[in-house]
Amino acid sequence: MSNQIYTMDATDERILSMLIDNSRVSYVKIGRELGLTEGAVRARVNKMYRSGVIRRFTIDANLGIGAVVMISVSAKKDTSSVGEEIGRIGAEKIYEVSGSYDVVCVLKAATADALNSKLESIRQIDGVMDTVSYAILK
């Protein structure tokens, strides 16, 4: 990924919106809808990926009953570093926030034991001072 600033135009925004709705949509289908070639769509997606607009391609899985929690994290060092480390543990969403805590993230796991393992890994990150977990009920 690059540190360069990437300015999206309306076509990029439409491509990104289509990929957010369905990450498996083909570049050919996107191109047909937008009046572009498959190659032009591919080039735009690659440029958005290289510039960091698209950070990762992922699967939003239905884990059955599973477990989902939201965690607030207080950090004593750079919150971006803590957030990156939380991402490596497998957080679904990570937000830097203002207030009493520095980072809020969402964790999902198939079982409570797997979720607890992720929580313990977050608590062991160098720089994490405190965490508060909220079970998501609905």
Describe the structure using short key phrases.
138 residues; alpha+beta; Arc Repressor Mutant, subunit A; Alpha-Beta Plaits; 4-stranded antiparallel beta sheet; 5 helices; 41% helix; elongated
What is the element layout, followed by pairings?
Blueprint: H1 10-21, H2 27-34, H3 38-51, E1 67-75, H4 79-89, E2 93-96, E3 103-109, H5 112-123, E4 128-135
Antiparallel strand pairs: 1-3, 1-4, 2-3
Helix pairs in contact: 2-3
Largest sheet: 4 strands, antiparallel
Task: Compute the number of structural domains.
Answer: 2
Distance between the amino and carboxyl termini: 36 Å
- Bin the strand percentage: 15-25%
CATH class of the largest domain, named Alpha Beta
Question: Could you give a short description of this structure?
Answer:
The protein is about 40% helix and about 20% strand.
Give your account of this protein's structure.
The chain is of the alpha+beta class. It has two domains: 10-51, Arc Repressor Mutant, subunit A; 67-135, Lrp/AsnC effector binding domain/regulation of amino acid metabolism (RAM) domain (Alpha-Beta Plaits), CATH 3.30.70.920. Helix content is 41%, strand content 20%. It has helices at residues 10-21, 27-34, 38-51, 79-89, 112-123; strands at 67-75, 93-96, 103-109, 128-135. The two termini are 36 Å apart. The relative contact order is 0.15. The mean pLDDT is 86.
